[in-house]
Amino acid sequence: MLARGEFKKYTKFEQMKKMEELEKMEKRMGGIKNMAELPGAIFAASIKEDNLAIVEAKKMGIPVIAIADTNIDPSQVDFPIPANDDAISSLRLILSYVYKAIIEA
């Protein structure tokens, strides 16, 4: 879009909004464009917040590990971790174990 000069047809305000949107997408998803292959699994800290990534992973046959709070259906993921995904202390504890497991693997 930017390389093809399509921005010129928009007003300056619309161009600014589109640039903000592109920058946001690049920040959130820019890492996946350099991946040579699909990941062996994905980890989601919240089934509710990361639902789009979970749905896409399921379509691609990628196993999903996620923290499953009581307010969401844990059957959406392959390996649910029952815990409170709203409490920072809970997330910190679980993520420290996930981090250690990844480093040791």
Give a short overview.
The protein is an alpha/beta fold. Helices cover 43% and strands 11% of the residues. α2 links the parallel β1 and β2.
Per DSSP E runs of 2 or more residues, the count of β-strands stands at 3
Number of helices, counting only DSSP H or I runs of 4 residues or more = 3
Radius of gyration: 18 Å
Instruction: Look at the structure and name the CATH superfamily of the domain at 36-104.
Output: Glucose-6-phosphate isomerase like protein, domain 1
- What is the architecture of the domain at 36-104 at the second tier of CATH? 3-Layer(aba) Sandwich
Strand adjacency order, main sheet: 1-2-3
Percent of residues in helices comes to 40-55%
User: What's the order of the H and E elements?
Assistant: HEHEEH
Distance N terminus to C terminus?
40 Å
Helix/sheet category: alpha/beta
The description of the largest β-sheet is: 3 strands, parallel
Described by the principal axes of the CA atoms, the overall outline is: elongated
> How much of the polypeptide forms β-strand, as a percent range?
5-15%
What is the CATH level 1 assignment of the domain at 36-104?
Alpha Beta
Mean pLDDT: 88
| Poorly predicted sequence stretches spanning 5 or more consecutive residues | none
CATH fold descriptor of the domain at 36-104: Rossmann fold
Task: Give me the oligomer status.
Answer: single chain
